[in-house]
Write a structure and sequence with these properties.
The chain has about 180 residues and is α+β, with helices and mostly antiparallel strands. It is about 20% helix and about 40% strand.
Length: about 180
Amino acid sequence: MSRQSGERNYYVLHTYSGYEEKVADNLRQRIESMNIQDKVFDIIVPKEKAIEIKNGKRKTVEKKIFPGYVIVDMILNDDSWYVVRNTPQVTGFIGAGSVPVPVDEFEIGIIKKRMGADEPKYKIDLLKGDLVNITDGPFKGFDGSVDEVDEIKGKIKVLVSMFGRETPVELDSLQVKKV
């Protein structure tokens, strides 16, 4: 089976998890030293901004969208395949057998849009009435039920039973886990 496509496409490489950046750096060096800049154009490690809570404080961090994968914009021929495939920590191309399968431009557009988002989105998988356990903050260890969800601010109101009555507590959605 020939790996000649002659067309410029995006292909996905499988790498050892945690080595995505190293693979991208190694690839850039190899492309230059092997003089195939006319065949490999861009290397993308898809990342997006996410919100984490540590010690009650919000922090925006960059997380890999697809750990263990790197996207390469290239013209596939036997030479470019060989250089990319034999880069340290690359385990192979995603495809059918030994033939890499290109990724649809539309999907790449979605990934790039996700990577370019300035503000991380809040993903709150809670509904009014859900039982939750508070995992952070002064009410850590308490259980309660969700009373309100504010997806725009990433906040929730939880009714916590204290001293024989339900007390509303406003929390960050990342300070609770569903029971």
